[in-house]
Each structure stands twice: as structure tokens, then as C-alpha cells.
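Why do we care about 3D structure at all? Because function follows from shape, and shape follows, mostly, from sequence. That is the central idea of this module. The next example makes it concrete: a single protein chain, its amino acid sequence, and then its structure expressed as C-alpha cells.
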Amino acid sequence: MAAADLDALRAECARRLESELDRIVGELRAMGARLIVLFGSYAAGRRDLFTDLDLLVVMESELPFVRRIPALLERLHPKVATDCWCTLRRNSRRCASGRLSATPSRPGRYSMRPSDQAERWLTQAEDDLRWAAHLRDSGAFNLACVLSQQVAEKAMKALLYHAGREMVVGHSVQDPCQKAAVVWPELAPRCPRWSALDGYYLPTRYPDALPGGLPAKAYDRRAAEEAVATASEAVDAARSIIRG
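And the structure:
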């Protein structure tokens, strides 16, 4: 793909993200959302081909949590990659975008201590790692790669909860890893390697995020093996700190 074509694709992607954000926020407000918080890569200023929309929405719902998010996404029907966390609690950080309303989180609003959250996130990372290895061995190489990214992300978030954070949002490995390295400097040299897994977040899942190819065909066993090994290193490091 020529550089000019790639630039045009990036510009179109940025336009679609902007348009969809405005539409989704309008629909959420019409649905009675009490709080909308934009976080993640888009809120941080990224506008590339692998950027998605991450939203925390506070609104009333009679559905249980596991059904609330799919139901909300079905109503919104986003036209770009969108992750929407719908909660009944007013627990959020102040949003980086002035167009979206947000309030700072209030202390004492969590039912779990950060240390309990750390163990939950680490345990989930360990279980996901087991399935990532299973996908690798089964030949689902792209899925093994994206799940490895999720494993490392959860391991790093576990560390931040262990450090006392009350809320950790976002979908990258890099951001929580860098913050954890402030507390545990020995992690800093390893952050670049673990953060490289962020490159698997979107292109391993969506055909339109991988121009000219399909995720199911683009990734091979070597990529999956390296991704799972890298995720395993992140889990081992988090486990040694949290449980050691």
C-alpha cells in the first residue's frame, strides 16, 4: 500500500471514530445515561488504524452485568470497534475529553479492597493464559495472540490494584506496565517487550484492521508461541510480586 493511500486510510479512520463517538454519546444521553467517560487510546490522543472507542457508561438497568453490555452494544450498533462498560455505580475518572461529562471517583465506593481485586485479576490472567496456550496448540494462532495481549494486560492491572489503585481502566499493556514500573522499577526493562503485545489488540480480530488480509490467515505458529511466552513472563512477574 502506498504511503498516500495509507494516510488517506488513517484520515478516514479518524473521521469515522469522531463521527461515531458523537453519535454514540448522543444516543446514550437520550437513553438516560447519567455519566459517560471516554478512556483508553482514543482519549489519550491516538487516531491510528488500531484505535477503538472505550466508554464507561453509568445508567440505570435491570439487567445483570454480564447481559447489560451486550444489550447496550446491540442498541448502539457501533460502526467502529467499541468497548462499552456499563455500570450502575458512579466510579470513574475525570474524562480527558471536554465533550463528555464526567466526575471524579469518590472514595469508599468499592465493595472490594484493592488487594482482593489484585488476586481476582491475576487469577483471571492465569486462566486466560491456559486457554491462550490451548488456542496456540489448536492452530488458532490469531486468537492465541489476542488472548495473550489480554493476559498481559490483566497481569499488569493486577499489579496496579496490588499497589493500591481503586480503579484501573484502559485496554493496553503499556500504560499499566509503565505505572507499575514506577512502584517496582525492576519491571521497567521488561515493559517494552510486554507492551509489544498491544500490537495484537485489534488486527488479530477484525478484517478491516488488517488491510489486505484476514486475521485467521495472517498469523502463524511462531507468532502465537512468542505471544504466549511473553504473556507468561508478565504473569510470572505479577505472581511473584503479588503472592511472593
